Amino acid sequence: MKSPRGEARRRELLDKVADELGTNGLVDFSLRRAARAAGTTHKVLLYHFDGAEDLLTQAVLQLRQRRITRALAAASEGPGDRSLADRVRSMWPTLIGEESWVLDQAIGLAMYDAPRYADLARTASRQYMPTLLSLCPESWSEQRRQEVAELILATLRGFLIEWRTSGDAAGIEAGLAALTRALEREEQAN
């Protein structure tokens, strides 16, 4: 177990590397590039992380957590009695905002080289689900909340792929409208 000082240093390094990834993306990521961004040496990074893949994974997780925090803040703005549909819709600008292209690259990397990077995709679901579950009405059963959260996650992922690959804003807007209607019907089906 690392000391509190060592853990604070690790977090500081990770923040700097995540910032650099958010700006420059995953292409040509290396320990040396990460070390330059963090203002240290690659040996120091190896002391704190289990190699380039571990550092890359941790930095992607950090970027994704930042996105989730911003999305939850957007979903929580306004009156507390907002519908699930309104909350989900309010998250969309955050999902396509800062650093989204890097997170899309990470999912692409996981699909391209699953043996090495599949965890980048698996952890995405584990990171997003608690937030999506927290948006569902507490009166719903756990199973219903899980099903609806999975629907939201899969649908938004599809919209993100469509946004990144085709840029079809009208098609995505139509899809968001359909998702909104489906969620409104689900909420009314108490």
UniProtKB/TrEMBL annotation:
Q: Which PROSITE patterns match?
A: HTH_TETR_2
Any GO molecular function: DNA binding
Per the record's keyword annotation, is Cytoplasm included, yes or no? Answer: no
Q: Tell me if DNA-binding is a UniProt keyword of this record.
A: yes
Instruction: State what protein this is by name.
Output: HTH tetR-type domain-containing protein
HTH tetR-type domain mapped to chain residues: 7-67
Q: Extract the signal peptide range.
A: none
Q: Which InterPro entries match?
A: Homeodomain-like_sf (IPR009057), HTH_TetR (IPR001647)
This chain's source organism reads: Kribbella pratensis
Its keywords, alphabetically, are: DNA-binding
Q: Which residues bind DNA?
A: 30-49
